[in-house]
Design a protein that fits this description.
Layout: E1 3-7, E2 18-23, H1 32-41, H2 43-50, E3 60-64, E4 72-77, H3 86-107, E5 111-114, H4 126-143, E6 149-153, H5 157-168
Parallel strand pairs: 1-6, 2-4, 2-5, 5-6
Antiparallel strand pairs: 3-4
Helix pairs in contact: 3-4, 4-5
The structure holds ligand AR6.
Ligand AR6 is lined by residues 10-12, 22-24, 30-34, 36, 78, 115-122, 153, 155-156, 159.
């Protein structure tokens, strides 16, 4: 059975098979967790990202990890909350988590760390995102117990509290 855990560390320092980046559709870097990942990974990451042709909202692309602790990085693009109806934003955020997990299965990556996608600069309401994220990951892992561990990397205290509360509840 997959373990679902919470960490409050900088995601670039986590010793896992793959970390997820909350990127933008250019995949050429930005602020927030994306900026932190590019800073830690170094310029070779940007060079690989330039070859990928961007990424649509809800989709995900895999690169090597370079200077981050994990050997791989999955770059996904969350929805900008104000640009969609709430239902459409939910569908797109679901796709981010689902597509990352699908790629992990395909590439046999068994320990994954997610940041709180879209809940920073992209303005998604944190409680809504936490509930959707945990439901999506729980459902996926029920059918894919090969995934050993999913770490919810909650950088800000509000997200950490929300994840602790939501993970503690039974579905
Ligand atoms: N480790 C883990 N989580 C972090 C870190 C870190 N080092 N730094 C920030 N967070 P955001 P978004 C958390 O804004 O909302 C970028 O410019 C942060 O506290 O990084 O999806 C991209 O290029 C928050 O909870 O991503 C896009 O343009 C979470 O990461 C845009 O921001 C996500 O916040 C994407 O916006």
């Amino acid at each position: 059975m997959t373990r679902l855990t919470i960490s409050q560390d900088d995601i670039t320092t986590l010793s896992v098979d793959v970390i997820v980046n909350a990127a933008n559709s250019s995949l050429l870097g930005g602020g927030g967790v994306d900026g932190a990942i590019h800073r830690a990974a170094g310029p070779a990451l940007l060079e690989e990202c330039k070859t990928l042709g961007g990424c649509k909202t809800g989709e995900a692309k895999l690169t090597r990890g370079y200077g981050v602790r994990a050997p791989f990085i999955l770059h996904t693009v969350g929805p900008i909350w104000s640009e969609h109806s709430p239902e459409e934003a939910d569908r797109l955020l679901f796709n981010c988590y689902f597509n990352c997990l699908r790629i992990c299965m395909k590439e046999e990556l068994q320990v994954i760390a997610f940041p709180n996608i879209s809940t920073g600069i992209y303005g998604y309401p944190k409680p809504r995102a936490a509930k959707l994220c945990i439901e999506t990951v729980r459902d996926f892992c029920k059918n894919h117990p090969e995934i050993q561990e999913v770490i919810f990397c909650c950088f800000d205290p509000e997200n950490k509290n929300l994840y602790e509360e939501t993970l503690g509840m039974q579905v």
